[in-house]
Amino acid sequence: MTVERTLCSELPATTGPVTVAGWIHRRRTLASVVFVVVRDRSGFAQVVVDDSAVREQVSALPEETTVRVRGTAVANTKAPGGVEIVDPVIQPLGAPSQPQPVDLWRPTLHATLPTLLDHAALTWRHPSRRAVWQIAAATLAGFRSHLDGLGFTEVTTPKIVGQTTESGANVFSLNYFGTDAYLAQSPQLYKQMLTGVFERVYEVGPVFRAEPHDTTRHLAEYVSLDVEFGFIDDHRDVLAMLRGVLAAMVDAVREKASAAVELLSASLPAVPESIPVLHFREALRLVGAPEDEPDLAPEHERVLGAWAKSRFGSDFLAVEGYPAVKRPFYTHPQPGDARWTNSFDLLFRGVELVTGGQRLHNHADYLAALSRRGEDPADYAPYLEAMSHGMPPHGGFAIGLERFVARLLGLDNVRYATLFPRDIHRLSP
């Protein structure tokens, strides 16, 4: 027989017999009564225990023990939500919890980052940690909903591949039944091929980068939000699409995770109707870098982010025209000057968040690009076949979910926004 369950968040609108289920979040023992706070996915409920036998039972049930509580909901203005449960019957749903390495009942979770990560299955239970991923989940919902509404098709692509996608990033190699293979650095080649099928595609999935970075912004595995679509004029169409996606993601966080935003005192950005754009050459001049610098350093990004905020009141800045030497072979050159490309990086609050741009779409251009880089077209045969059968002008972008959430919440390390991080030091939990 299934017991009808009331969520803690539903109690303010409920009186009379109720059944709640969750974890013992906190016990507070007084002379003649014990207050037990039960936590479920929706919030908290206060249970008042004054029966001596039940009080003795509760004394043997530590915090984080799972329980079912049957009792009567009554109004009490001093209780959380204005309602408490009296005359309870408490049923443990498992063995008493073992001692915790951190106090989850405290409003603020006082723990170092290694402690949080080592005990992630437990520390994610804390309301402030759960709120981070509730915001991430709302971000994903906004991403998908917006693109679905624009006629995109969600796709899934292989994560075990036979060739690297981006020569500038290290790869994880593996033995695939006696053949060399790699974990996918991105779904780039596949999403381009599928643009020739569906015109508009997106994917939410893991990507892998074997880059030996031990920084606050890099992970060896992260969730990439990839978009690719056809029949564009140039990379500015891609940037316009990106702007709409970002606005939808922020709106979804505001609408679906408002309680989490409030709990974390998060400052959500206003996505401008038109994201400010700066050419790479001008960016170098603004940050005082040499004219032949091929990329922007993190300090350059911070300076440019501050400049965009001061000049335009924008948390976002697109730097377009990256040098061809720093972009993959499939990147479309800037018309009239092939030193530069029809690509961009989007900075969010002074940190690179997105790389995007226009791709090559003519088969002959791909053969020439690969030849210039000394690569064998045979290594890309299925990809090049797609390009030989009428591919539309197309482009796209990729957003790192964890980095987006970290910047959104002002977290100083991307690992705070990652459920179970993978980096050069961590392979568990």
Give an overview in words.
The chain is of the alpha+beta class. Helix content is 30%, strand content 25%. The protein has helices spanning 52-59, 113-118, 120-123, 127-149, 188-198, 235-256, 258-263, 280-287, 298-312, 363-372, 381-387, 401-409; strands at residues 16-29, 34-40, 43-49, 66-75, 83-92, 153-154, 160-161, 173-176, 179-183, 200-208, 221-230, 277-279, 316-320, 343-348, 351-358, 394-400. The chain has an eight-stranded mixed beta sheet, sandwiched between helices. A five-stranded mixed β-barrel has the order 1-2-3-5-4. The protein has a three-stranded antiparallel beta sheet with strand order 7-9-8, with no helix packed on it. Helix 4 crosses helix 6 and helix 4 packs across helix 12. The radius of gyration is 26 Å and the shape is elongated. The chain starts with 15 loop residues before the first strand and ends in a 20-residue tail after the last helix. The mean pLDDT is 95.
